[in-house]
Amino acid sequence: MSKTYLLFRIQIINYLALNEMKQSGQKKKTAITLAFGVVTLMFLLCTYNWFTALALVELGKQAFIPAYMVSVSSFAILFLTALRSNGILYGSHDLDLLLTAPIKHSEIISSKFLFMYVLNFLVAFAFMTSGGVVWMLHTPFDIFPFALYVISLFFVPFIPMCIASLLGLCMVYIGSFFKNRNIFAVLFSFISLGLIVYVANVNMHSGEGITNIGVMLANQITKLYPPAVFFLDHSSISAPIRLASFIGISTVVFYLFIKFVSAQFRSLNDIASTSSKYRSNEKKVLKHRSPFVALYRKEVSQFFHSYTAVLNAGLGVISLSVFSIFLIFASPEQLGKYIGMDNIHHFLSIYGPIIISAMLSLSCPAAFAISLEGRNIWIVQSSPVSIKKILNSKLAMNLTLHAIAYCLAILAFTTRVQMDTLQIISTLLIPIAFSLFSITLGLFLNKKYPNFTWENEMIIVKQSLPVIITSLISMLTVVGPIMLHWILPLPLQPLLWGIAVVMIVASAIMYQKACKATYI
């Protein structure tokens, strides 16, 4: 059995908590909940792409389904890999142990790329399988192109994985020249993701003036992801040659990139694991602060020193801030024209509180704030500070994060959107209730189900039980009133206020229970 396979197997077992499913008690429940969440997400992705493919069939453009699914799945892989590649490839906790073992760097990097490949293959599978089935059902039977489509599924993740990993590699290298490397890394990541989304949006609207829908679709698909051109039907080039070319190019790019990263792996990991080369020569002055202020500053420092935590838990706050700044400096009419919505004032005045609440609920560091202490939790546990002050400091950090985006959003909505008095009050107060609920729920669940033995921050930031449950419940509280408003003839504003009151009461109960505990 090769070392690469053994390392890959260990990563899969740790990431998916497979061993914990065999145990009894809370760990088994956590692992089962995680598995259920993954299966549910896969089902939703498959369902969405099934109906998207059916829409293309209704337009009579089923021949575009393979190229469309490759393009969209590759874009999704690029976006998701950019969020987690550095946490897997460089600077992870297990690398210190692996680098001291008699294992080649090529075996380490191959196992990590194989691990990322499996995760991204699931994304490609969710997109391409459901769409491919629709395509095969509405296309004259031909075993050869069908077989080639299935084979190409295994090669689709290669190129977007390499592009996203290259972005991470550039960030690690360039960040070493900055004093505040983590701040640069976060800014670079969000700017890169923003550019990716912007370019994709511009390219998807590039063919709107074309009258021929087939030409327009081909134009949009190839601009979103140029390699998708291999899946478009060209009369001059046969399908086997096109797909063989795609497989060959993807394999060569992937192989060369792994070879390059393997050769530079040691130096890149050293850069990612060590602090910046620029250090302040000023002597630090010790200051006396209250216990709460000291704990609060520690929480802020701990959060912003974790690249994975900021990139994932800060996405909602950053997105809301960017949207609000755009709304302040550009007119709502320009925004409506950009997203293809005519009556933008009416939409934002009604759904403004939900938009703000949804973005704030996406950013919930409190759901992993206790677990983030890791094996250093004994320092907090042995400190002469009450449990209430420790929890308050973690709540305050998350509230500060929300307050920045909230203030920008309120300024944008109240000055640029036409709203009546009740709508203004709803926009001001309802997001506060959603924010308090998501933060309190996350902290309450993290205190109840902590994980201090993690080896990679991504495990607690993206797939821990508190994070998953908090995200699902927050999503339900946001989507619930909208669905009731659409399905049943119920007014939206009273629904939102009713849910807000329930959430405030639930937040108070959870907070009191958490503070009454005798240990953290």
From TrEMBL:
Record field: transmembrane: 31-51, 63-83, 114-137, 143-170, 182-200, 239-258, 307-330, 350-374, 395-415, 421-445, 465-488, 494-511
Keywords from the named record: Membrane, Transmembrane, Transmembrane helix
Keyword Oxidoreductase: no
Protein name listed in UniProt: ABC-2 type transport system permease protein
Organism this protein belongs to: Virgibacillus chiguensis
